[in-house]
Amino acid sequence: MKRTLFIPMILIAAQAACAGFTIEPQVLALKVNRGERVGWVELTHTGGSPVAVELTAHKRVLDLDGELMADSLLKTDDFMIYPSQVLLYPGGKARAQVVLRGKGSITADKAYILYAKEVPFDFPEEAGRKVATDISMTVAFQTIIALEVNKSGSLTFVSSKALDSGKVEVIVENKSSGRVSTEHIYIMADGKKITDITGIGNSIMPGQKRRFIFKHNKPLTEKEFRWGTN
What we know:
This protein is mostly beta strands. It folds into two domains: 16-148, Sandwich (Immunoglobulin-like), CATH 2.60.40.10; 156-229, no CATH class. The protein is built from no helices and 15 strands.
């Protein structure tokens, strides 16, 4: 089965042309099975006035349809970020270190969010004039922190039921130690490969359930359920 990183969600509250900074990489992958517990992100000033950027780590909570629950961005102490606030001047770049705390063994893939947000800051005066620090539009980015254990992912059938308009719902659970990419996922039903499926916006992480909805004439049984990736 092909294992690919899910595409991270980047939230921008202002148009890209107005953004004061960018952050890379979009996915910070730590191969914890190899002992990797430290990573770096780079922030780049992209124009306009100096900006102050605050970096915080959050739990990544998805709903049953695989959508990020933005209202559930709970901060986590699983990481130390240094520096947690970065000052960027025109043309400048800065790096921040992301360190996984603790020495305990990670046995399953995990995903977190590194939230980079522009915050107010009183920059010192330049050449006798005060640097403008008013933030009329907040710029924020979300980067994925992926802890990888290099194990294959699999899905287990949970339930299925008929819906209106000739569609069915299938709920699955990832009881394995590896994530399941939904980038090219399909479901087999009555010998047909079904690719027009909802719930494929983000990979299914260990311990998560996911709801798939697709056109079919009847619910599937556990024995009938088959899935795969192209």
